Amino acid sequence: MRDRSFAPSRMLIYLVVSLVAAAYLVPLVVVVLNSLRSNVEIAQTSMIGWPREWAFGNYLTAWSDFCVAQTCAGIRPYMLNSALVTIPATIFSTLLGAVAGYAVSLWRFPGDRWIYGVVTLGIFLPQQMRLLPWTIVLRDIGLINTLAGLVLIHTIQGLSFTTLFCRNYYVAVPQELIRAARIDGAGFYRIFWRIILPLSPPILIVTVIWQFTHIWNEFLYGVTFTNGQQQPVTAALIALSAAVADIPQHGVQSAAVMIAALPTLLVYLLGGRYFVRGLTAGAVK
Amino acid sequence: MTGTVTTAARPGGPATSGVVSRLPEYLLIWVPLLLSAAHLVSFSLWTIWISFTPSTLIPVSGWVGLRNYTSVLASRNWQIAFDNLLLFGSAFVLLSLMTGLILAILLDQRIRGENALRSIFLYPLAVSFVVTGTVWSWLLNPGIGIQKLVQDLGWTSFRFDWLVDRDMAIWTIVIAAIWQSSGFAMALFLAGLRSVDADLVKAAQIDGAGPVRMYRRVILPTLWPITITVIVVQLQFAISAFDLVRALTNGGPGIATQLPALVVYDLMFQRSQLGRGAAAAVLMLLILLAVLLPYAAWRYHQRRQATHA
Fold first, then answer.
1. Residue B16, min C-alpha distance to chain A (Å)
2. Which residue does chain B place closest to A44, by CA atoms?
């Protein structure tokens, strides 16, 4: 059943797989083509079609011109917001998760099992259970409607995933290695720095990609805790759809969607292998 | 080299080092972990507490018993959302499971271009639900999407207007959700297929099993633990689905595609019914627990069997 011959049954397999692949690509192709068609052309025909005239100007309009809620600066400020939330929150949650994962897997301290167990429950707890408390806490510490507030939320909540990823990776490190280093007088950080970190690039890449993708794509917290000019790009896309509901500008909107999706698509293209590893690690453990 | 500064203070190792010299490491481990654990526990309890208070615009103390719960459960909004969740959850999970399994089996036939194909089936997972929902709302919009295209091509009586059809709109969410996450099922199944014992397959081949029989009797039975994991993860997504629906139908037409997460958001931030919103959030949690607790028990059972064997 696993030969490389081109029997009719194998042709059928190729046919089915190619058709499904084409179907999966349709939304991407449609958006790319529409981002290069004028609004008028789309309105006259449909969303699905080859550009009669290449409207590269859509990207310029989407990037810096169109208006959302009385502000006409395009998608640029919201992309910047998303970057300013995603990059620090990814770095913080990954570093803290690496140290925490190292501590609970190799160093052991009183009560670590309990803490670790509770922290990993965060993977399952719905966001809705935390919306009201976060609103109140952010307001009390003055971080409501700020990017710093979102960084704080994503760092703390990201710890559930990053600690789990790193802990499951570090449990495979032999205890003897740590014991030997301790006999040589190395302490917690020295062992982390000299022994653990050099072993860590694979899991750190998985963690960074996972965190970056999830925080960039997050919507509920962004739309709940920020408004107007402070919103991340996912919330801005929804605001844009609402703003142009009467006179749709599908060309410009498609360009905006492409720009908003580009960072995570690029990360996926560059680190696909690690992306998939994160998916399976998050699911199986 | 920052590590040397903290560790130089206690050359004797952990046996002789006191709590004080280990304070920095304790802080860096404990503070983030404690914050994370504390926020999970306290925020959950906080939301549960609010669900028993008469809070509306702002949280207030007081006790109304289960009144918020009964009023949420009695509301049409929640009833529609719950029915939709049952339909959407089962349809989406079953169909994406089947799609993922079929794709995994096909990709497992040593075909050319497997890597490229796998990337194509998985790329939707890298895109946000907002983007997915927006794009599918265009494709499924009868005025500008697939229906318009087919009609322009000459088949003028062609109808594909589920997006604006109250009875069918929930299926548009099923379509978009399958597109977004059947690749996940495929990836897990493919990993499972690749780890099937080669001797088992060989033995079955010697026994003269054909490909269909091989899959039904030998290979697929080994996949059921993965199947359960996929079902649980997909159900978890279905129960808390928000972004996708917000971008695709926004609960409409009317409230035909309402889902629990949208009801929670609506109560909390649009109707300023914090008590009821919190009650709806707790109900969501209970639905989730109805899926996760059996799963956790099953995992526990599996682990115990593995250690006893």
1. 11
2. B144
- For residue B125, pLDDT beyond 80: yes
- Smallest Cα distance from B13 to chain A, Å: 5
CA neighbor of A55 nearest in space, from A240, A251, A249: A251
pLDDT of residue A265: 95
Q: Which residues of A touch B59 (CB under 8 A)?
A: 132, 136
A23 burial (CB, 10 Å; 0-12 / 13-18 / 19+) is exposed
Closest CA of chain A from B40, distance in Å: 6
The DSSP line for A10-56 is HHHHHHHHHHHHHHHHHHHHHHHHHTTS-HHHHHHS-SSS--SS--T
Give the residue, A249 or B104, on which the prediction is more confident.
B104
A67 pLDDT exceeds 50?
A: yes
ipTM: 0.91
List pLDDT tens digits, range A71-123.
788 899 999 999 999 999 999 999 999 999 998 888 777 788 888 999 999 99
Contact flag A219-B109 (C-beta cutoff 8 Å)? no
> Thinking of the domain B75-308, which architecture would CATH place it in?
Orthogonal Bundle (1.10)
> Which residue is listed with tokens 């570093």?
A95
What are the structural domains of chain A? Answer: 8-57 (no CATH), 76-284 (1.10.3720.10)
